[in-house]
Design brief:
InterPro entries: CRISPR-assoc_prot_Cas5 (IPR021124), CRISPR-assoc_prot_Cas5_N (IPR013422), CRISPR-assoc_prot_Cas5d (IPR010155). Belongs to the CRISPR-associated protein Cas5 family. Subtype I-C/Dvulg subfamily. Keywords: Antiviral defense, Endonuclease, Hydrolase, Nuclease, RNA-binding. It is an enzyme of class 3 (hydrolase). This protein is of the alpha+beta class. It has one domain: 2-Layer Sandwich (Alpha-Beta Plaits). 15% of the residues lie in helices and 40% in strands. The protein has three helices and eleven strands. The radius of gyration is 19 Å and the shape is globular. The model has no long low-confidence stretch (mean pLDDT 90).
Length: 227
Protein backbone atom coordinates (compact mmCIF):
# COMPACT_ATOMS: atom_id res chain seq x y z
CA UNK A 1 0.00 0.00 0.00
CA UNK A 2 1.33 3.48 -0.83
CA UNK A 3 0.66 7.05 0.31
CA UNK A 4 1.02 10.01 -1.99
CA UNK A 5 2.11 13.60 -1.48
CA UNK A 6 2.76 16.65 -3.65
CA UNK A 7 5.51 19.13 -2.84
CA UNK A 8 6.19 22.49 -4.49
CA UNK A 9 9.93 23.27 -4.63
CA UNK A 10 11.70 26.27 -6.10
CA UNK A 11 14.98 28.16 -6.05
CA UNK A 12 17.17 30.74 -7.75
CA UNK A 13 19.53 28.17 -9.29
CA UNK A 14 19.84 24.41 -9.71
CA UNK A 15 22.39 21.97 -11.05
CA UNK A 16 21.33 18.36 -11.62
CA UNK A 17 24.69 17.24 -12.91
CA UNK A 18 24.94 15.00 -15.96
CA UNK A 19 27.31 12.16 -14.99
CA UNK A 20 28.78 11.96 -18.51
CA UNK A 21 30.32 15.41 -18.08
CA UNK A 22 33.63 14.72 -16.37
CA UNK A 23 35.40 18.09 -16.30
CA UNK A 24 32.76 20.81 -16.10
CA UNK A 25 29.37 20.48 -14.51
CA UNK A 26 26.42 20.61 -16.91
CA UNK A 27 22.88 20.30 -15.59
CA UNK A 28 20.08 18.18 -16.97
CA UNK A 29 17.20 20.26 -18.35
CA UNK A 30 14.93 19.37 -15.44
CA UNK A 31 15.15 17.93 -11.95
CA UNK A 32 16.16 14.26 -11.79
CA UNK A 33 14.07 11.76 -9.80
CA UNK A 34 17.02 11.05 -7.50
CA UNK A 35 17.26 14.77 -6.63
CA UNK A 36 13.51 14.83 -5.97
CA UNK A 37 13.84 11.82 -3.67
CA UNK A 38 16.65 13.57 -1.80
CA UNK A 39 14.42 16.58 -1.13
CA UNK A 40 11.64 14.37 0.25
CA UNK A 41 14.09 12.50 2.46
CA UNK A 42 15.49 15.78 3.78
CA UNK A 43 12.01 16.59 5.10
CA UNK A 44 11.06 13.17 6.43
CA UNK A 45 12.69 9.77 6.21
CA UNK A 46 12.84 6.71 8.43
CA UNK A 47 14.22 3.20 7.73
CA UNK A 48 10.65 1.89 7.62
CA UNK A 49 9.67 3.91 4.53
CA UNK A 50 10.92 4.23 0.96
CA UNK A 51 10.09 7.26 -1.22
CA UNK A 52 9.10 6.64 -4.85
CA UNK A 53 8.85 9.63 -7.20
CA UNK A 54 5.92 9.38 -9.64
CA UNK A 55 5.92 12.66 -11.60
CA UNK A 56 7.85 15.91 -11.81
CA UNK A 57 5.97 18.99 -13.02
CA UNK A 58 8.03 21.80 -14.56
CA UNK A 59 6.51 25.17 -13.63
CA UNK A 60 8.96 27.68 -15.13
CA UNK A 61 10.78 28.02 -18.46
CA UNK A 62 14.08 26.17 -18.68
CA UNK A 63 16.89 28.70 -18.70
CA UNK A 64 20.61 28.04 -18.40
CA UNK A 65 23.48 30.26 -17.34
CA UNK A 66 27.22 29.73 -17.09
CA UNK A 67 28.99 30.45 -13.83
CA UNK A 68 32.31 29.65 -12.20
CA UNK A 69 32.35 27.82 -8.88
CA UNK A 70 34.99 27.01 -6.33
CA UNK A 71 35.22 23.28 -5.63
CA UNK A 72 37.46 21.02 -3.62
CA UNK A 73 39.66 19.02 -5.98
CA UNK A 74 39.47 15.72 -4.13
CA UNK A 75 37.39 13.95 -1.56
CA UNK A 76 38.18 11.64 1.33
CA UNK A 77 38.03 8.05 0.14
CA UNK A 78 35.61 5.49 1.50
CA UNK A 79 38.61 3.31 2.39
CA UNK A 80 40.02 6.07 4.61
CA UNK A 81 36.65 6.57 6.30
CA UNK A 82 36.26 2.83 6.93
CA UNK A 83 39.79 2.64 8.31
CA UNK A 84 39.11 5.58 10.65
CA UNK A 85 35.86 4.02 11.84
CA UNK A 86 37.64 0.76 12.58
CA UNK A 87 40.40 2.57 14.46
CA UNK A 88 37.90 4.86 16.19
CA UNK A 89 40.07 7.83 15.28
CA UNK A 90 39.67 10.72 12.84
CA UNK A 91 43.41 11.02 12.33
CA UNK A 92 44.24 11.34 8.63
CA UNK A 93 40.72 12.34 7.57
CA UNK A 94 41.39 16.08 7.42
CA UNK A 95 40.99 17.83 4.06
CA UNK A 96 42.40 21.36 3.79
CA UNK A 97 40.08 23.27 1.48
CA UNK A 98 42.52 26.15 1.06
CA UNK A 99 45.16 23.74 -0.28
CA UNK A 100 42.88 21.88 -2.69
CA UNK A 101 40.56 24.52 -4.10
CA UNK A 102 39.79 24.52 -7.81
CA UNK A 103 37.71 26.88 -9.91
CA UNK A 104 35.52 25.22 -12.53
CA UNK A 105 32.93 26.39 -15.01
CA UNK A 106 29.38 25.12 -14.66
CA UNK A 107 26.25 25.33 -16.77
CA UNK A 108 23.35 25.56 -14.33
CA UNK A 109 19.62 26.19 -14.39
CA UNK A 110 18.27 29.59 -13.42
CA UNK A 111 15.02 30.37 -11.58
CA UNK A 112 13.45 26.93 -11.30
CA UNK A 113 10.20 25.63 -9.83
CA UNK A 114 8.76 22.13 -9.78
CA UNK A 115 6.04 20.04 -8.19
CA UNK A 116 7.14 16.61 -7.04
CA UNK A 117 4.41 13.98 -6.93
CA UNK A 118 5.55 10.97 -4.95
CA UNK A 119 4.44 8.26 -2.56
CA UNK A 120 6.11 6.19 0.09
CA UNK A 121 6.04 2.46 0.63
CA UNK A 122 6.63 0.56 3.84
CA UNK A 123 9.85 -1.46 3.79
CA UNK A 124 9.34 -5.10 4.88
CA UNK A 125 11.75 -6.14 7.61
CA UNK A 126 12.29 -2.59 8.82
CA UNK A 127 8.83 -1.86 10.16
CA UNK A 128 8.83 -1.48 13.92
CA UNK A 129 5.87 -1.60 16.31
CA UNK A 130 5.80 2.21 16.36
CA UNK A 131 5.55 2.51 12.56
CA UNK A 132 2.30 2.98 10.68
CA UNK A 133 1.41 4.47 7.31
CA UNK A 134 -0.80 7.16 8.81
CA UNK A 135 1.88 8.20 11.28
CA UNK A 136 4.54 8.74 8.61
CA UNK A 137 2.12 10.51 6.28
CA UNK A 138 1.10 12.88 9.07
CA UNK A 139 4.71 13.48 10.04
CA UNK A 140 5.67 14.40 6.48
CA UNK A 141 2.72 16.72 6.03
CA UNK A 142 3.29 18.41 9.39
CA UNK A 143 7.01 18.90 8.81
CA UNK A 144 6.53 20.15 5.22
CA UNK A 145 3.81 22.58 6.30
CA UNK A 146 6.05 24.02 9.02
CA UNK A 147 9.14 24.12 6.82
CA UNK A 148 10.93 21.58 8.99
CA UNK A 149 13.68 19.36 7.61
CA UNK A 150 16.53 17.16 8.83
CA UNK A 151 18.88 19.17 6.64
CA UNK A 152 18.27 21.95 4.15
CA UNK A 153 17.14 20.36 0.86
CA UNK A 154 19.01 21.44 -2.22
CA UNK A 155 18.52 21.61 -5.96
CA UNK A 156 21.28 19.28 -7.07
CA UNK A 157 24.21 20.81 -5.17
CA UNK A 158 24.42 22.08 -1.62
CA UNK A 159 24.92 25.76 -2.38
CA UNK A 160 21.65 25.89 -4.35
CA UNK A 161 19.13 25.63 -1.52
CA UNK A 162 15.53 24.63 -2.22
CA UNK A 163 12.47 26.33 -0.76
CA UNK A 164 9.47 24.07 -0.40
CA UNK A 165 5.78 24.02 0.47
CA UNK A 166 3.27 21.22 0.80
CA UNK A 167 0.58 21.16 -1.90
CA UNK A 168 -2.75 20.31 -0.32
CA UNK A 169 -5.20 21.36 -3.05
CA UNK A 170 -4.80 22.04 -6.75
CA UNK A 171 -1.28 21.96 -8.13
CA UNK A 172 0.37 25.37 -8.70
CA UNK A 173 -0.12 26.71 -12.21
CA UNK A 174 2.87 26.81 -14.55
CA UNK A 175 4.35 30.12 -15.64
CA UNK A 176 2.10 31.75 -18.31
CA UNK A 177 4.83 31.65 -20.95
CA UNK A 178 5.01 27.89 -20.62
CA UNK A 179 1.45 27.33 -21.70
CA UNK A 180 2.26 28.14 -25.33
CA UNK A 181 5.86 26.98 -25.23
CA UNK A 182 6.59 24.01 -27.54
CA UNK A 183 9.34 23.10 -25.09
CA UNK A 184 6.61 21.56 -22.88
CA UNK A 185 6.70 18.46 -25.08
CA UNK A 186 10.11 17.11 -25.87
CA UNK A 187 12.48 14.18 -25.54
CA UNK A 188 14.97 14.86 -22.73
CA UNK A 189 17.21 11.91 -23.57
CA UNK A 190 18.68 9.47 -21.08
CA UNK A 191 18.37 10.73 -17.51
CA UNK A 192 19.63 9.40 -14.21
CA UNK A 193 16.72 7.76 -12.44
CA UNK A 194 18.36 6.79 -9.16
CA UNK A 195 20.98 4.59 -7.56
CA UNK A 196 20.07 0.95 -6.99
CA UNK A 197 21.44 0.62 -3.47
CA UNK A 198 20.17 -2.97 -3.14
CA UNK A 199 22.29 -4.15 -6.06
CA UNK A 200 25.79 -2.78 -5.70
CA UNK A 201 24.88 0.92 -5.82
CA UNK A 202 24.43 0.79 -9.61
CA UNK A 203 23.16 3.93 -11.38
CA UNK A 204 19.88 3.45 -13.26
CA UNK A 205 18.79 5.51 -16.28
CA UNK A 206 15.55 6.00 -18.20
CA UNK A 207 14.44 7.77 -21.36
CA UNK A 208 12.84 10.93 -20.01
CA UNK A 209 10.05 12.64 -21.94
CA UNK A 210 8.45 15.93 -21.07
CA UNK A 211 4.78 15.76 -21.97
CA UNK A 212 2.66 18.84 -21.36
CA UNK A 213 5.28 19.98 -18.84
CA UNK A 214 5.34 16.73 -16.85
CA UNK A 215 7.97 13.98 -16.62
CA UNK A 216 6.51 10.59 -15.66
CA UNK A 217 9.01 8.53 -13.69
CA UNK A 218 9.18 4.73 -14.04
CA UNK A 219 9.87 2.45 -11.12
CA UNK A 220 13.43 1.31 -10.58
CA UNK A 221 12.55 -2.25 -11.65
CA UNK A 222 10.56 -1.24 -14.75
CA UNK A 223 11.57 -2.99 -18.01
CA UNK A 224 12.51 0.25 -19.75
CA UNK A 225 15.03 1.23 -17.04
CA UNK A 226 18.66 0.71 -18.05
CA UNK A 227 21.85 0.24 -16.08
Amino acid sequence: MSYGVALHVWGERACFTRPEMKVERVSYDVMTPSAARGILEAIHWKPAIRWVVDRIHVLKPVRFESIRRNEVGHRISEVSVARAMKARSTEGLALAVEDDRQQRAATVLKDVAYVIEAHFEMVPGRIGPEDSEGKHLDMFRRRATKGQCFHRPCLGVREFAADFALVEGDLPSPHPTLLEDPWRDRDLGLMLLDIDFANGRRPKFFRAHLRNGVVSVPRLDAPEVRG
